[in-house]
Amino acid sequence: MPISDEEVLQARAALAAEQSAQIILLAAYVVTTALMAVFLFQYMFVLFVLFGPALLVCAWQTCPSNNSFDAKKELKKVMRGDNDPNQKPAGMFERTFRNARANVGAELAAFAGYQQTMANFSGVFSVATLRLPAMDTDCFWLGAFGKWTFLFSREIPTD
Fold first, then answer.
1. pTM of the complete model
2. Are 95 and 82 in contact (CB under 8 A)?
3. Is 6 helix (H, G, I), strand (E, B) or coil?
4. Do 6 and 27 lie in a common domain?
5. Considering only CA atoms, which of 142, 12, 146 is closest in space to residue 74?
């Protein structure tokens, strides 16, 4: 049985009404998202303007001095895995073995020689770099808010 022209027109009208409703809903989502983004950015800007200077002064007052960076101690922490968030709690034997391995590794790296570079950024934070040729590694720490935090390590680039 063939479809009449009237049935085709009714189907198109129903489809057009459904598509129009979807387009209106999509436009409402876009407008709502844009308004929320504008509000969020304005709110964040106000927070930054209010608390940014206080945070800057706090960082400036608590920036650790370059002399407070103990390369061996920080290297031992890294080799022990203290900075690894994926590190599972270890038993006594594993902790002892890890500490011994870190102590020996740090002493060997120090004995073989390392180059320490310090960069202070206006007294707000400092960056310490250790170049360990024996391990073929560069290690980076950030000194801010009264403590030194390990950032990352990488292989020494060969040029």
1. 0.65
2. no
3. helix
4. yes
5. 142
